[in-house]
Amino acid sequence: MKFENEFVVRKPLAACASVLESDATITSLFPDTQIVSNQGGVRETRTRVSALGAESIVRFKFKSRADGLRFEKICDGRVWRSLEGNISLAAVNPETTRVQIAMDGSTRALVPEFTIKAPMKDQLQQMTRALRARMEQA
Length: 138
Known about the structure:
The chain has helices at residues 13-21, 23-28, 113-137; strands spanning 2-9, 33-39, 42-51, 54-65, 68-73, 80-93, 96-107. The protein has one domain (2-137): START domain (Alpha-D-Glucose-1,6-Bisphosphate, Chain A, domain 4, 2-Layer Sandwich).
């Protein structure tokens, strides 16, 4: 299951890259998120979520890359077998940057993908809004 979204922001690439390095940006991507570890360039987050009628804790690892940020879900629950993503930055011109958010994942055997597709689209939209707002403020 793949999800993608992108936007263009009138900020130089370096300014956008600086925003991605910020802990505040990472915690803004998902509501009620906190960074619980930052070791070896990998930030681990913990987020309280309500999905498929149950409340749980979701954990992600974020790692900076030359062209953006890579993240992956720590799949220790009942829904996801794997979920990985990237936030990529590309200069459109010296004053404008294209930001792309892409996620790719697969659910566990007894979780039909259609049950998680709509919540994931909503999550991607929320991440996009939060990231755009952070970058426009930079």
